[in-house]
């Protein structure tokens, strides 16, 4: 995809605040400080569309950005940061649960992992949840420039074992070298294709599944 224009539309906490219309949506999710903002900024060729922060856990809203006239890019709150107040965590869980399980515009979720870290139970729960709701995940492994080839291979094996993934499921990315940018876009384009929308299943009732965000 050639990105000509990216525009912030609005922030939301509940369905009544979501943007109206039928544009498909691709959401981005991951633990705090995993490199989500850097990934989004590189994909849309903007330096500060999504602000990076030295304080993980600051993003507390669902943020919608329109890319060209093609789709909405949705920045979800980072999860798993221990210092976030409990009251804020309790607000995040139903907010994200409702969006991921109810939003019919949603075509897929880019789930972001740090190559240097072992996936946590929260990452596993998020992936399990996406599968249960038939929301296609795109697994992006960030910060690949910070490890050697041998370390990348070792960490990839750990990630695949922990999350029950195959090698072809992993998309490697570096905000520094731009490695993986085109591959990630190819995955997004595939989910935005009309035939992918037609194949999307109706989400299940969230009451039937266990909540996944602590």
Automatic annotation (TrEMBL):
* Keywords from the named record: Cell cycle, Cell division, GTP-binding, Magnesium, Metal-binding, Nucleotide-binding, Septation
Per its UniProt record, what Pfam families does this chain match?
MMR_HSR1
The record's Gene3D superfamilies line, in alphabetical order, gives: P-loop containing nucleotide triphosphate hydrolases
The protein's required cofactor(s) are namely:
Mg(2+)
Instruction: Cite the InterPro entries for this sequence.
Output: G_ENGB_dom (IPR030393), GTP-bd (IPR006073), GTP-bd_ribosome_bio_YsxC (IPR019987), P-loop_NTPase (IPR027417)
Claim: Protein transport is one of the keywords in the record: no
Q: Where is the EngB-type G domain?
A: 22-194
Q: What does this protein do?
A: Necessary for normal cell division and for the maintenance of normal septation.
For this chain, the family text in UniProt reads: Belongs to the TRAFAC class TrmE-Era-EngA-EngB-Septin-like GTPase superfamily. EngB GTPase family.
Q: What's the protein here called?
A: Probable GTP-binding protein EngB
Q: Which gene encodes it?
A: engB
